[in-house]
Amino acid sequence: MKIDRLLSIVMLLLERNKVSTSTLAKMFEVTPRTIFRDIEAINRAGIPIISHPGVHGGIGIMEAYKIEKKLFTVSDITALLIGLNSIQSSMSSEEILNTIAKVKGLVSEEQMKDFENQISIDHTPWLGNRSVKPNFEEMKNAINEKRLLSFKYSDQNSKRTQRKIEPYRLVLKNSNWYLQGYCTAKQDFRTFKLSRISSLKPLNESFVPREIGPEMFETTEKQTIAIKLLIDESLRDFMVEYCGEENVEPYAKNKWLVSFPFKENDLGYSYLLGFADKCECLEPEHVRLELIRRINKLMDIYKLRTVPQANNEK
């Protein structure tokens, strides 16, 4: 029996007049039988649970036992729920569900309905690395238990290396998760993007934590620079969404100037080339020249290779 689940149920019932056992079972991803056992345990602990019979019935806590809660405003609770729901796709379901239930118990049922009507959070990815969530749990356990981790890592230049690290913390930055730790091969602190990690394996070797500071985890990836693009009207909406409307301004008929955040690596250049003839880099000069070099190299490949004609003979 999970003590966190019991506390979450109590917090919920302190605010709601009544909640059905089927609703609680669905919320905590357990069977109704488990919820009945939880309610019995709460009763034995001295919290008076009452039952409301009927089709629209349920269980609740005796009204005289409840207290008024003024610690958080509705805006505070909304902010907390948005944050918790945003990381639910990475963290374990039960852990987050229990925390969300506690927070929901701090606002009224009517206010909770307003929140759910106004904000919808969909955790289903458009695309993505399906191994990130299980890896996240393995990493979190290794950090708590001070155990070494082994994995394969593909850097920004697609170079794959085998790593063995002392894991220290997980960081969420710009919608991406990163693992920070001490790399035994490099003998230095490093930051690793979770989506580039594969073949993760927790080791039975433990480690003694080192003294760390924020400056020890500076990323080794290239910094983002602002480049100036001249784009076609057809790309305007995308650029506004990606760069912000303040970085997209009119230039001439059906043309727009964009201040575009750019990383000088293979992925960054491939991204720009993907816009084809709808986009031209105006500056800086060295980025423009590198794009020209890559375009010429691509043209050479197509010029040199002769594609055999299909054999039409029967």
Automatic annotation (TrEMBL):
Hydrolase as UniProt keyword: no
Domain HTH deoR-type: 2-57
Gene3D superfamilies referenced in this protein's UniProt entry, alphabetically: Winged helix-like DNA-binding domain superfamily/Winged helix DNA-binding domain
Keyword terms, alphabetized: DNA-binding, Transcription, Transcription regulation
Gene Ontology MF terms in the entry: DNA binding; DNA-binding transcription factor activity
Recorded superkingdom: Bacteria
Coiled coil regions, renumbered to chain: none
Protein name from the UniProt record: Predicted DNA-binding transcriptional regulator YafY, contains an HTH and WYL domains
Organism encoding this protein: Paenibacillus algorifonticola
